[in-house]
Write a structure and sequence with these properties.
One of its GO terms (cellular component) is side of membrane. InterPro entries: X8, X8_dom_prot. This is X8 domain-containing protein. The structure is a single chain. By secondary structure, the chain is mostly helical. It is built from 3 helices and 2 strands, in the order H-E-H-H-E. Helix 2 crosses helix 3. It binds 2-acetamido-2-deoxy-beta-D-glucopyranose.
Length: 117
């Protein structure tokens, strides 16, 4: 086996190992990209909670994910809800490049970010 192929195989194994948790489930949440300005996040948020079909009830006033009351936090929640709902049916974590996936659980306080295996 040529050395290059062995190297590629090892790299692939490392990547797979890195993205799998010990239980073998790929953990990927979808959140607002730090680079994205609020105006673009707002557009993504509006789409996700509208035509996108995300369930945005938790970011309504008084609900678990309303605070912090920022476009960034609300769009992260909505992007993730959309992504978890549709990722196995063609939905992606994109939102005109306003979103990014992460393996760090964004849940905080009583605000739980859904995760579909
Ligand atoms: C949206 O989520 C809330 C709780 O998170 C749930 O009670 C409600 O039934 C959901 N609505 C839809 C349409 O799935």
């Amino acid at each position: 086996m040529p050395i290059v192929k062995i190297f590629l195989l090892l790299s692939l194994l490392l990547v797979i190992n890195y993205s799998l948790k010990s239980d073998g489930v790929l953990e990927d949440w979808c959140i607002a990209d730090e680079q994205t300005p609020d105006s673009e996040l707002q557009a993504g948020l509006d789409w996700a909670c509208g035509k996108g079909g995300a369930n945005c009830s938790k970011i309504q006033p008084g609900q678990a994910c309303f605070k912090p009351d920022t476009v960034r936090a609300h769009s992260s929640y909505a992007f993730n809800n959309y992504y978890q709902k549709f990722k196995h049916r063609g939905g992606s974590c994109y939102f005109n490049s306003a979103a990014i996936t992460t393996d760090l659980n964004p849940s905080h306080d009583s605000c739980n970010y859904e995760l579909t295996p």
